[in-house]
Amino acid sequence: SSAVGRFYGNTTMLLFVVMGGHLMVLQAVVASFGAFPADGNALEAINRLRLHELGAVLFRYGLWIALPMVAILLFVNAVLGVISRVAPQMNAFAIGFPLTLTTGLIGIAFTLPMMDAPVAALLRLATGLFTGG
To answer: Given 38, 117, 124, 128, which is the most exposed site by the fewest CB atoms within 10 A?
Structure first.
């Protein structure tokens, strides 16, 4: 994985611990014994979860986290493409790499404070599955 991916993963784990996610996971494990009984009705309990809706929600929150950075970097690469087309004598690789790297780091600095809302919403959703909330 890339350095940015590891940075986001470590930041998310720290945010998880700071928000009390480890306690929510323990609470969800205890409540899961009520949601998924150990008798023969395990398939019925899985059917109640509506896994296709959970997949859509997970994709939506993942897009919510990643879309600002994807849009910023797509815009920068489009501008670099136009510049390399307008001025072919300019070396796009010599300018493009540092500009993309700098824009990515600045974008991370600006989008990082917005990451707590989707992570908190996902934690509430995950604990709500097992606690019935």
So the answer is: 38
Residue 130 near residue 31, CB atoms below 8 Å = yes
Task: Report the predicted TM-score, pTM, of the whole model to 2 decimal places.
Answer: 0.64
Distance, CA of 48 to CA of 43 (rounded, Å)? 9
Q: What is the pLDDT of residues 29-74, one digit of tens each?
A: 787 777 666 776 666 766 776 777 778 888 988 888 889 989 999 9
100 and 77 Cβ atoms separated by less than 8 Å: yes
Task: Give the residue among 63, 70, 84 at the shortest CA–CA distance from 4.
Answer: 70
| Cβ pair 73, 107 in contact under 8 A | yes
- 């909330």: which residue's tokens? 133
Rounded Cα–Cα distance for residues 55 and 59 (Å): 6
